[in-house]
């Protein structure tokens, strides 16, 4: 049986848990504040902690951090009221297993949550999470940021909170919204998406809220809006930043009250639609520039998920390529140098751009070859890669007969430092290949210089350099020379 601690300044909450949990044979300790908590965790090896967000002498997040450093294996559930849901979501990022809203109206769900946490529930729920992602064609990969993000998304999916997804274009915002819908209790209800930037203001209003017959020219019959059709389901508002200020006011009203009116109508209608909004622009910035309502942002970003761009999870590129090849029913594969070239590119269009590049390469290579080489990649990928290292290659090429060592070293250092500074996720093999090149170029430069000084006398040059003649020939890249000698 488990050791459980409950920290809440409302005594009734503690008493409630005491009855609920001791009835199941667990040992329960109660505390009213941070001071009690600090004492209790020193005295008992707890397995599970219920912590209220708002406490008289501290806040739940600080206690959570303390718990995770002193008793890392103890699971934690944060308790919250509506106004503190944002903090509770934050707590999940700090390692809380879940959060629950007070007052508790579904005891069965609470019991299931506790059983799940005390048993092996959390591993099996993670397996379910990855299985669901796979079924939906949502590739997560190994990238840590992406894994943390999907775990948070999976946990909050079951809560009735709005979600804001930010990320550059093509990073998979719609795929993630779809995943959240399927992981939620609403998965059997409709998931409907609309791009707020793709239609005019009038059309968007009628699409969202519906219209009555005769509401405007062309409204020959009444029409249901998405808030009506997606009732009990999920509405995906893509490019929310593009919605006009007038639409923003109407959206705010639905989010605050659940109420709306059809265009040209008078009846107040109610909806229970979960909104997942997405934006490729930073909405906080749009608020600062007065292009977006602050109160609407506050309603939308109860949970904010930010998708990393592809270049920041480039280690998973081969996995994405493999997935896209399968999706295209192709048996082709990409050569190592093609993948290397793709890893060097900065992918402004992210996953969508990658898919298009794979699709183009497959179309061009089909029937020609089984392995896709850099020749089948678009020019932009080649240009980008070479633009950085171009200078370095050209210095080397132009100095085949006597390398300008100083210039080469300068360009070499600049290039390596540019990789070092510009991109955290650099391909180390690529960097190391330049280190090998450096060794080769230095060897060759010394040999050439010495040969000039000895007027081409190889024996003398080799003696001066303290190497064998075979090594000298090897450094000059002459055939038959054994590199190991
Ligand atoms: N993690 C992923 N696994 C598999 N495919 C993905 C993933 N992320 C994105 N894609 C694919 O990339 C393409 C773009 O994804 P999506 O439309 O979700 O991006 P977006 O961020 O919503 O784009 P936009 O900003 O243009 O609306 C789609 O074809 C999608 O299937």
Number of domains: 4
The parts where pLDDT drops under 50 for at least 5 residues are 479-485
Helix content: 40-55%
How much is the average pLDDT?
Answer: 87
Query: What fold name stands as the CATH topology of the largest domain?
Result: Rossmann fold
Number of strands: 16
Structural class: alpha/beta
Distance linking N and C termini: 70 Å
How are strands sequenced across the largest beta sheet?
A: 2-1-3-4-5
Strand content: 5-15%
CATH class of the largest domain: Alpha Beta
Question: What hetero molecules are in the model?
Answer: adenosine-5'-triphosphate
- Continuous helix count: 21
Outline type: globular
GO biological process, one term: regulation of DNA-templated transcription
Keywords: ATP-binding, Nucleotide-binding, Phosphoprotein, Transcription, Transcription regulation
GO molecular function: ATP binding; sequence-specific DNA binding
Protein name: Two-component system NtrC family response regulator
